[in-house]
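To close the chapter, one final illustration. This time we ask the reader to focus less on the individual chains and more on the assembly as a whole: which components sit near each other, and how the overall shape emerges from the parts.
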Amino acid sequence: MKLRKRICLFLMVLFIGLTASGNVFAKYPDKSINMIIAFTAGGSSDVQARIMQKYWNKYSDQQWVFVYKPGAGGAIGFGEIAMSKADGYTIGGINVPHIVLQPLVQKAQFSPDDFAYICQVVNDPQAVAVRKDSRLKSVKDVFEFAKANPGKLKVGLVGPNSGHHLMFLDVKDKFDFPVTEVFYKGAADQNAALLGGEIDVMFGNLNDVMRSLEEMNVLGLAAEKRNAFLPEVSTLREQGFDVVSDIRRAFVAPKAIDTAQLGFLRETFKKICEDPEYLADMKTAGQPTEYMDGDAFAVYVKQQSELAKVALEKAGLLK
Amino acid sequence: MEFIWPAIGHLFDPLNIFLMIVGLTGGIIVGALPGLTATMGVALMVPATFAMDATSGLIMLGAIYVGAIYGGSNSAVLICTPGTPSSVATTFDGWPLCKSGHADIGLFTSLLSSSFGGIVGTVMLLFLAAPLARFALQFGGPENFWLCIFGLSTIAVMSSGNMVKGLLGGALGLLVSTVGIDPNVGVPRFTFGYYPLVQGIEVIPAMIGLFSFSQVLYLVGSHKPFLADYVPTPGALKKVFHALTSRCKVILMRSSIIGGLVGMLPGAGGEIASIIAYNESKRWDKHPERYGTGVVEGLAASESANNAVIGGALIPMLTLGIPGSAVAAVILGALLAKGIQPGFKVFTATGDLAYTFIMSQFAVNLLMIPVGLFLARIMTKLLSIRLTFVAIGIVVLSVIGAYAIRNSMLDVWIVIVFGFIGYFSNLVGLDTGAMALGIILGPMIEENLGRCVHLSKASGDSVIAVFFESPIAVLLMILTALSLLTPLFLDWKRKRMEAKCACAPTSLKEGPPHA
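The assembled structure is written out below.
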């Protein structure tokens, strides 16, 4: 009896040992990968990641399992990625400047250093937009009107403590811009307020502005160069205002991820980002693509972190 | 107009009929399960539409939306739990009807009213989209603020029996809604050092707790063998149809129009529309004291309004790219992913798609009657299951539903804590309906007041000036004042009636929903 038990035990140990060692030698990834999205299903971030998944399956048989962790402007989900097990089977999407701002103003439970950056996929520049019938025809008009009528010009922003808010602080810092700022919960409310005439001007993401393009005039883009979606719209720099502000989307893994695994992810994502069909799909969905590799993006995040800290401190928003 | 006939033709495509029926069935089930909301049902199906052509995908999402909003009434009637936030007002008369053994009357009234409301909403979408979209844009910070205050004033009418307890419930709800990130300054508030609370107390788990979990606690303590007695009424459907087409005509029409109008406002949805419609029906009724005791009028008002919201919410979504509700926002996402740009052009450039979608909404609302009847028959079986099993089932569904909203354990704790709050509130007669209203409206009130305060910097730092600049806000202020005076009027009327007829029952005042 005893012997039989021992044999059983031995066989079990052997079996477990074999399967475990099998795991070590298997090619990564050999099971499905959790994709944490810090916003609601069906939102912009979700749609973008779903498009990527379509092409991911060209290079890997393993599926992405989407896990939605919305709340606190993304901070809950970002924290979840940072704290998850770094076994290569949990990755997620993040946004900049969200991950830079939240640890500063909300005491969020992560820092930008907690991530290993896979790559940037979207660069959604901020646009200055007015209603179609507005008498403000250029960015210069906006600034001149603001200066001539202090406090009268109403500028809509999504926020507070958001990318829009940062751009606003930057503008106020660089130029004489005495206006009344109004915060909105989201882009939909902001667009509605502009079309309804509650605000005169808004700083909004290109992706959001595109939804109501028929009713709006986009006066300028806060970007380094013009965007393929609206090639006729000049940048703020071209119009003499040196302001660059955008929201970036990127994919990350927890910091401690194995370098080989990170390498595989970086390589595969790069292949996806260069696929012409993927680029066509992104264009249809109105997502302004811009690939940047993981190392360069990590440097960019660090830089943004410092800039944001200075801007918020200057505005007295850091306590 | 040249698009309408081909659009109707598309609807007879077997695939589209199949998608409508599947969407409706799925939607009704999702809506009926507490915690699984219309938003979630639609959002989960968005990836599936990537594989379909745009029209079919849109038809299916629309069908799920309609089904889920109606489905919410099933659990509101059968277990006194609003399946979606839009059916809070449905519990007020639905549950008393069920308790008195007339669950079938309640379910059929909800079904037919929902279908009617949905059709009125679609008519508004088809014929009045352009002018209504322009009107919706007039609602900014001050208008939305006063609309919410008007919604809140319904507490006064709801709890005309005991105003102090009603107000106390509402105030507690408002207090709960302040937990989380301050919408105007952006810093965390009342989180007591526990980080997950920065996301705030989500409305749905709080409501599952207040209504459904507390209901389980009450039922478990009651030693009743079944949830409620149920005797099928012979010819129930015919009776309901007769009642709705005769004495509820005006109520159905008024509530549907309220629903359509509130639906197209970006900030306000079915939660508010159904409560306002319920309140208005009660105010204009000859015997308002009957409301809350299980009258079909109350159900008809709430359910027609929340389904009319759908057509309304789609108006600014299609014409301006501004969603009128959370579900419309998800559908907008699906449209954009297909590369369809919203705008007035949607009716010309992509007219085929737009009109097929609108026509499918008519078809879906009609198809909902047979599909809903079939499912209602199955759901009433719940009442013949022993309470012990039903109670366990409700708890399991509540917890799963709450967790599924944002995959957060916090929401499970919220259900449990609010379950006990609801249970003890009912014991002392504190109005949980008012509390739910406070939790729903609190964030919207705060956000819009914040907008007014910001805007006031451009009008001499006076918020009052911002309020009075807008004629719509002034109108809403007057309506709010009238609404606050209604209970006094009702009281006076009741006293006069009692004086006239000594034999009249004296205990007609409303109790809490599950008393």
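DSSP finds eleven helices and ten strands in chain A. Chain A touches chain B through 57 residues (CB under 8 Å). With these observations in hand, you are ready for the problems at the end of the chapter.
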